[in-house]
Specification:
This protein has three helices and eight strands; from the N terminus they run αβββββααβββ. By secondary structure, the protein is of the alpha+beta class. The protein has a single domain, classed as Immunoglobulin-like (Sandwich). Strands 4-1-8-7 form a four-stranded antiparallel sheet, with no helix packed on it. The protein has a four-stranded antiparallel sheet with strand order 3-2-5-6. β7 and β8 form a beta hairpin. α2 runs antiparallel to α3. It is globular and about 65 Å long. The model has no long low-confidence stretch (mean pLDDT about 85).
């Protein structure tokens, strides 16, 4: 009986502490990374991954969203259930390789420290060792709310993205 009581109290305390909210994350671009050179595809095949930061190791992503942005569609909306008491980190990637986007999550989970270190240093050859031709547009903490502008140049392509999340659904 004590075990049942303990489990009930434990469950209720975790339920009360957790503040899970359904949120809308909007990713938009005003300048795609694949729109400059004549060999560019004129669209960005984008992967947005969100991991909970709870230990040294990443678990499966809470968000694993693949989408294509082009001149006719420059914005995507993603709904997710996130806990305000937890910390999250996102990876925004532009996919240039021919592999399936589902293959990237396990690589990132295993090598996230090295990949992030290479990204911070601007070590594109180091990133290629793990992600081949896929480009990291940004790695950062996903806070609630967020209004993050991402503007940079990768190789010869300039890009501009915005990540916003400021309302609960």
């Amino acid at each position: 009986m004590k075990l049942v009581y303990f489990l009930l109290v434990y469950f209720l305390s975790n339920t009360i502490i957790a503040q899970i909210n359904k949120v809308e994350i909007i990713i938009s671009s005003t300048n795609l990374s694949e729109d400059v050179s004549v060999v560019s595809t004129k669209n960005d095949e984008v992967l947005f991954l969100v991991y909970e930061i709870e230990s040294e190791e990443y678990q499966s992503p809470l968000i694993n969203e693949y989408f294509v942005l082009d001149s006719s569609r420059m914005e995507i909306s993603i709904e997710a259930n996130l806990d305000k008491n937890r910390r999250y980190e996102y990876y925004l990637l532009e996919m240039d390789s021919h592999r399936d986007y589902l293959q990237l999550d396990p690589i990132i989970r295993i090598h996230h420290k090295a990949i992030k270190e290479c990204f911070v240093k601007g070590d594109y050859l180091g990133i290629e060792k793990y992600l081949e031709d896929d480009d990291i547009l940004d790695i950062n903490e996903l806070t609630m709310p967020i209004n993050k502008s991402i503007n940079s140049i990768y190789k010869i392509d300039r890009y501009s993205y915005q990540i916003t999340m400021n309302k609960e659904l």
